[in-house]
Amino acid sequence: MHAEQKGINEECGIFGVWDHPRAAELTYYGLHSMQHRGQDGAGLVVNSGRRLRAHKGLGLVNDVFQDASFQELTGSAAIGHVRNATEGSHTYENVQPLLFQSQTESMALAHNGNLINADSLRTELEHEGSILQTSSDMEVLAHLMKKSSMETNETSIADALNQTTGAYGILMMTDDTLYAALDPNGIRPLSIGRLGDAYVVASESCAFDQIGAVFERDVLPGELVAINDDGVQSSRFAIRGQRKMCSMEYVYLSRPDSDVNTVNVHASRKQMGKELAKESPANADIVVGVPDSSISAAIGFAEASGLPYEMGIIKNRYVGRTFIQPTQDLREQGVKMKLAPVRGMVAGKRVVMVDDSIVRGTTSKRIVDMLKHAGASEVHVRIASPPIQHPCWYGIDMSTYRELIAANYTLEAIGELIGANSLGFLSEPGLEKAIVKDKSLHQGICTACMTGDYPVAKGAERVLTHKRS
Ligand code: SF4
Q1: Sign of CA dihedral 122, 125, 126, 131
Q2: Which residue minimizes the CA distance to atom 8 of ligand 1?
Q3: What are phi and psi of 219, to 5 degrees?
Q4: 145 with 154: CB under 8 angstroms?
Q5: Fewest CB atoms within 10 Å of the CB: 108, 132, 258, 282?
Q6: Rounded distance between C-alpha atoms, residue 5 and residue 40, angstroms
Q7: Domain 259-432 class?
Q8: Which keywords has UniProt assigned to this entry (predicted)?
Q9: What DSSP assignment string belongs to 134-155?
Q10: Looking at residue 8, what is its pLDDT?
Q11: 173: part of which helix (H) or strand (E)?
Q12: pLDDT at 104
């Protein structure tokens, strides 16, 4: 496997506040609402006006901040991060925001996504004498910015970003400015909200609701937003490509109460279920969803098929998500602890089990087994997204070709492997129909892990000018 493919495994959440007396506290609440985006580390950097100060650690937001006194983290601006670590990167050094101190300034950086050419940039920097302390893409970016200018400003950020390829939402904070930048194809989500006079920026709009902020707008593809005491300035660091929002944000990653690129996640999942019922109906008695991310699609499937939706599986809320556990053993143990069948609902019934996606197939097999042990006479598995046949280059932990069940087996073989009586996937046009309501607003989605059609090719670094809009 190419070295740059190995470092693509990150799904994170970022949150920033400008001009609020309780910036650190708001960041804590914002991060808490995005805990589902990363459970291995959390941190924030607060700007007291005189200096930037970090508090971060490994673990859940509550673990990291249990001892943090927000009285000590005073300041009117902050950025924060929740992190999903991959094998080998689960270290304190990699927890963001990264804080850099130089002769001229302090600067903090946090991101969600992946720079696909980070490894080659890192090699170049090392050849030039840089010594990097983390495996984070953001340290590479910070070095590129410093090479461009001693001071962080729109030009140095644009220069650095234009040497990178990838999918990212980035927050940066200096003594006097909060910056937000989005990749030229807008693959990752990033939105701006208002809380009175304060500005907030977040990966997901559910973070705004958590703190009582109001959504204002999404950061645009290739846009660099600078927020400071002069207000908000928008500039373009890249020619705006066609928006290709990650479709997995809708399928699985985002919270149902979030609006991603103006589309509500629950509503899109419900529509995926409806499209799936049309494309792949089943002779069955009840529809059940795998909690939590498949419930909306299961409700849609039930509505469109006329079958009753029942709570056939329940979730123990005190166990973390399986998809983002760093090892396969932990993932499988997690499933056992996490889900339980509602025997009285499924016994003797032909069950349609709706799930959002199949990655490795091991989780689906366990759930099918569990339903059959609970007495289900048949289990018809319906997946509310197309088969995942390709790895993600843009920051989502999707495994390698070798581990992706749909990259290695036919539909029939997958059905047999997971023990389903029948198996159906949503088609790619069905997925697009469920997400893209208004092409003029929404343009398009990334479906590269399903189709192999990658919107940003490796080695496609852009050479662009920096334009203020
Ligand atoms: S490849 Fe898949 S997971 Fe990655 S950004 Fe595209 S749709 Fe999202």
Answers
A1: negative
A2: 246
A3: -70, 135
A4: no
A5: 132
A6: 21
A7: alpha beta
A8: 4Fe-4S, Glutamine amidotransferase, Glycosyltransferase, Iron, Iron-sulfur, Magnesium, Metal-binding, Purine biosynthesis, Transferase
A9: SS-HHHHHHHHHHHH-SS--HH
A10: 27
A11: strand 166-174
A12: 86
Count CB atoms within 10 A of the CB of residue 230. 9
Which among 8, 12, 180, 335 is annotated as catalytic? 12
How many A from CA of 458 to the centre of ligand 1? 14
Residue with CA closest to ligand 1 atom 4: 392
Q: Who lines ligand 1 at CB under 6 A?
A: 167, 187, 246-248, 392, 394, 396, 398, 446-449
Q: How far apart are CA 264 and CA 257, in angstroms?
A: 7
Mean pLDDT per 10-residue section of the chain, whose length is 469 residues: 32 95 97 94 93 94 85 94 77 92 92 92 93 91 93 95 95 97 96 98 97 96 96 91 91 95 96 98 97 95 98 80 54 66 97 95 93 98 97 84 93 97 98 85 85 80 37
**Geometric angle at alpha carbon 334, from 91 and 13, rounded to 5°:** 45
Cα gap 277→310, rounded to integer Å = 16
Residue 206 among known ligand-binding residues: no
Exposed/middle/buried for residue 234 (C-beta within 10 Å: 0-12, 13-18, 19+): middle
pLDDT of residue 319: 57
Tokens (6 digits) for 384: 């509310």
The verdict on whether 12 is a catalytic residue reads yes
Q: Say how many Å lie between the CA of residue 235 and the centre of ligand 1.
A: 26
Q: Which CATH architecture has domain 3-238?
A: 4-Layer Sandwich (3.60)
Q: How far is the CA of 193 from the centre of ligand 1 (A)?
A: 25
pTM: 0.90
Structural domain spans, the chain? 3-238, 259-432
Tokens of 7: 């470092």
Q: Among all chains, which residue has been given the structure tokens 């997925």? A: 431
Same topology, domains 3-238 and 259-432? Answer is: no
